[in-house]
Amino acid sequence: MGSGPLEQVLRPLRLATHPNLLVGLSLSDDAGVYRLNDEQALVQTVDFFPPVVDDPYTFGAIAAANALSDVYAMGGEPITALAVAAFPADLPPALLTTILQGGADKVAEAGAVIVGGHTVTDREPKYGLCVTGLVHPQHIIRKAQARPGDVLLLTKPLGTGVITTALKQNRVEAQHLDAAIASMVHLNRDAARIAAELHVRTATDITGYGLLGHAAELARNSDVALRIELGQVPLLPGALHYAQQSIFPGGLQSNRTFLLDDSYVGIDPQLDEAHTWLLFDPQTSGGLLLAMSPEQASQFQQRCHARSEGCWRIGEVQHGQGIVIV
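RE: above sequence
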């Protein structure tokens, strides 16, 4: 569901609160956080979706990495997961087994365990996870703590939405799909651990609302403005090629409309239009967008390089409101 319609759904809700609920729905974030004691808090999230690739095992791994990412974005470590699946009655059960195995193996890679799950019969396959993690209550990474002067860093290239759409249209090149899959199955674990080591306090993961949708949440929650340099934003191989052919997923246009209609995002009109559209591209298992001081950013980039983690400086945090793309 798009950000705009979801806001309309959630706004009328009257939800109970609790002193131990440290992060809930009152301020949009990547996961909920509930304090257990002075040293531990639970991080909880859920995410599932239809297949984005043809291979069932790979689909399971991608969906699991995507769901685990919300825990990493909050500074937590996943410990358990529940599998959630919908599956057509007329498909071989072995396909669902393979999807579940792909997800289970990715959860194991994260150091967590599958403890159960739930399935329903549906016309279209869907799979994902409910993930529980742990974080110290004083070390939660939020979307709401960016400060003017901070540097913006991104840990994965953009373009999974247009590339998987090209796959659905039988127009994708194998090497482009391979690069996108490698990015989607890669856990945000090490980047998140580096952020925790450096006591970074602001991050979000880039998923269905695209880079600018999630960046807008970070900016609004922190009451700051963002300046993003288009030429510094990393792209997956082939992403710009497909964008120039107008191969876009459906969610891209809704992301773009929501952010441009209220003029929250301003784009230099001299920039290449197809290139700018990729900033709205819905990502599956995208990277982390982090805001930190220049000193932290330098150390973060060095440590990412040492661990073969991607890291690109794409802009800065400023006083004001909104996002400007230059």
